[in-house]
Give the backbone structure.
Amino acid sequence: MDHLVLTVLAADKAGLVEKVAQCISEHNGNWLESRMARMAGQFAGILRVAVPAQSCDKLVSALQALKGEEIHVQIAGAGIEQSCTWKPIAMELVGNDRPGIVRDITRLLSQQGVNLERLVTDVRPAPMSSEPLFHAEAMLAVPLTLSLDALQAQLETLADDLMVELVLRAEN
């Protein structure tokens, strides 16, 4: 089996996922995992599929043909998973919204060798004041050689500068 990672982007409307799923099914592919969302009238998704080697080229052509229906699919071969040299850590962050929060947090994480596995953000009104609050939830892949206390200390220094509340917790 060949494994492919697909990114899908299209103006949001009913039936988009079904068209992609039908295309995969017609070529004996297996939908393994996905993350999908609608945002600002657009639909975006990333998914991993397995397909028999003899059907792979035909599947790729069929997925690219979806462009005629305004469904844009980018295709990459799945990479080799590295041996586990990291531990999963959940991060939650809440603070007054301002430009640069994501840049500053991700810069610090990158400098510590931390990989961002998943990130979900939004801006919501604060309960009492209705001021915009930035919310982020992330799953981090923290190197086994980096202690949670050391990462917490680094992030708390930045959190004080950004005036955000930050919580880290080990995931099992």
